[in-house]
């Protein structure tokens, strides 16, 4: 289930967040989409994965919209 994999507690919560973000319901979006999703359309920056021996990392969990991640960064610093 997409909603749970994305960290939402229910389909309804996912549907509300999707609609608020994109202005259309997930079902209507799927119905209007005539071709398969192509990640290249997002125009994101290239991703490079590098290995750093002995690196110390920290992580904080965040579930939900990336637009609400600010408080997580605040807790990190």
UniProtKB/TrEMBL annotation:
InterPro entries membership: Homeodomain-like_sf, HTH_AraC
HTH araC/xylS-type domain mapped to chain residues: 1-32
Recorded coiled-coil stretches: none
Protein name per the record: Helix-turn-helix transcriptional regulator
UniProt keyword terms in alphabetical order: Transcription, Transcription regulation
GO molecular function: DNA-binding transcription factor activity; sequence-specific DNA binding
């Amino acid at each position: 289930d997409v909603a749970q994999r994305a960290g939402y507690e229910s389909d309804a919560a996912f549907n509300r967040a999707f609609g608020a973000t994109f202005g259309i319901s997930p079902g209507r979006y799927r119905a209007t989409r005539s071709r398969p999703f192509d990640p290249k359309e997002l125009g994101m920056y290239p991703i490079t994965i590098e290995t750093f021996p002995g690196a110390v990392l920290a992580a904080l969990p965040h579930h939900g919209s990336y637009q609400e991640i600010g408080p997580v960064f605040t807790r990190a610093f």
